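WARN retry 2 of 3 for item q-0093 after timeout on previous attempt; input resubmitted unchanged.
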Amino acid sequence: MPTYIILGNMTDQGAKNMKDLKQNVQQNRQSGERLGLTVKGWYLTQGQYDFVVVVEAPDDETMAAQVLTVAGRGNSRSETLRAFTLDEFDQIAQKIG
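OK item q-0093 returned
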């Protein structure tokens, strides 16, 4: 399954509701699992982003559906990056010629 890195920041609403962070993360994880996503890691971070999530999803459309679902809850904004393993890179490199 494709891997995605999600870089996120809390909105003002999310910051006000930090005491509910663990519950909100669990809710997001459960909605993702219903779509077929597997969360490989969820990290609260320091620096430019408030959190980083590593996820495997069946495809881009499924990942987009999850991102839109989470965004609709209003607690965070995110940027999603498609991540490629070295084995996947080998397949890409073969197409370069």
